[in-house]
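INFO  loader      accepted 1 record
INFO  loader      residues=369
INFO  predictor   begin
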Amino acid sequence: MTITRKLFWLSIVVLIISCSNNEQDFVDDQLQNSDVLQSSVVEKSGGATEIDLLWDIGLNKRSIIRHSSPDDNYYSIPSDLSEADNVGNPRPPEKQGKVYITEIGPYHSPDSTAASVTFATYQHDEADYGQFPGFDLWFTGGWGQPANYKFKNNTRLMSTVKLREVGLVTTHWPEMRKIPLWSFRDEFRLNQFNKIEAKFTTDLEIYREQYVRSLSYLTCDFRISYRKENYKNVRVDVIGVVFCNLSTANNPEEDIVYKNFPYGDNPVEPIVGSDEEIENYHKNVILLDAEEIPELDYLIKSEPNNGIITAAERTLIYDFKPLIENYLPAPPIGMGYEDAIIVGLDIYSAARGCDITFNVNNVRLIGTN
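INFO  predictor   done
INFO  writer      dumping tokens
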């Protein structure tokens, strides 16, 4: 079962390819500092331990780079790496002597430390930035103050040919051989944890749809990559929870398909599913509609509308470990969860024929063992 031309945030990674011996030593030295990792570990009753998997707990620091896809470009505005050196994540290996190449040239923090989070867009033109219709990305806080990310994805008056996406992305880059890059404290694998909880606070500041063929949702996606001993990619799985589904059209245009895509012992009708070969590896994608699964919370109940909708701020928590076990295929033959590397947590909007503004803050990814 496939979907037509649906590139999720899998394509939005820091595309820095190689690492010299000096850079390797630089990062390995930082890895030896066990205080950095241990500072995120909390002992729980009953002997369980919790660890924040992201370097920047809560994503509260100004350690942000903006990236657009599919053109694969970085931009200096509203990027802000002024606190990147204070997060703990290591400096990325430099490509052609620079870290991020933007429209104004090299862009980096004083110590060239990697960004903790990416402001990411898909299918928006750069001319859409800061415009209406178009998209916008606002960050407030940092420097000791709680942060807030505001995302505007205004497509109501734009062509409905494209499904446009706006949100935030965190990424680990497995090719770096167990180095904790870029957003994660370490190379974490599924078998290390009994629970893997994404926790964040969000709202729907405003939603307004076009009179016909609107397609819109907010989702929290979790990404894993099955790697062999030589780190060759065998399969990528993306499983998301659609926590706000405001779509009013079935199968508009060509980008998304509503199909029954059951996995495991819990067949449901998710919002979308795909199963396809990409280059030299396999990819599975499934987005679960939280309203259809009793154990999942959601922001606001979907219902037919033709006006303005808002939803008050709520804190949502999703344990992805049972969702992976119940809804995704078993690991590839000869592999297990010990081969599944956690490579990303993403929160974003997808919109066609509607305007969406939503806020996200206090983002955490917590592993419990």
